[in-house]
Design brief:
The chain is α+β, with helices and mostly antiparallel strands and 169 residues long. It contains 4 helices and 8 strands. An 8-stranded mixed beta sheet has the order 7-6-5-3-2-1-4-8.
């Protein structure tokens, strides 16, 4: 997806950014502009606004095809944060895509760690990552947007889609 003027404006002025892998090789970037609570107190119709960007989305080093996983990451676009720095170098016409990396940052320490709880899901920790890829002319740039460190549970950044089969009665 090539960035247009409104896309870039939304990325530069939003408060939060949510990244989704939705299906097959499609991703969704949601730019959210929050309404100040003081404004909400004065105006019952004040509400947050969203701008959506549909982008290519894929995994690397994942054993399932792209349509058999889901992924989610949310972050604030803080003034001096990592995402704000990435957004500042974006230009109109840049092609952007998402690259999800299951266990990209998992190391032996995480593989052999155990939590302080009896919950068996804490037996192994995982470190998944999200990269934003920018294609500008012949250049390919890749930036880490976020890393998620957690056990293999519902909070994990990248998860397989579990299909349930309903038996006819």
């Amino acid at each position: 997806m090539k960035l247009e003027k409104l896309d870039l404006a939304a990325l530069k002025s939003c408060d939060d950014v949510v990244f989704h892998h939705t299906n097959e090789q499609t991703g969704l970037i949601r730019c959210i502009k929050r309404v100040d609570w003081k404004e909400k107190e004065k105006n019952p119709f004040a509400d947050e606004k969203e701008h959506h960007l549909i982008v290519d989305s894929r995994t690397a080093r994942y054993t399932l095809p792209d349509y058999q996983f889901r992924a989610f990451y949310m972050t604030g676009r803080y003034q001096h944060g990592q995402l704000a720095s990435i957004i500042e170098i974006l230009r109109i016409g840049d092609e952007i895509s998402l690259e999800w990396g299951k266990d990209w940052h998992t190391n032996d320490y995480m593989k052999h760690s155990t939590g302080s709880t009896e919950d068996s899901s804490w037996s192994t920790m995982h470190s998944d990552a999200l990269h934003l890829v920018i294609i500008r002319g012949k250049k390919r740039l890749s930036f880490i947007v976020g890393i998620s460190n957690c056990p293999d549970n519902s909070a994990r950044m990248i998860q397989p889609i579990v299909y349930s089969i309903r038996m006819a009665s």
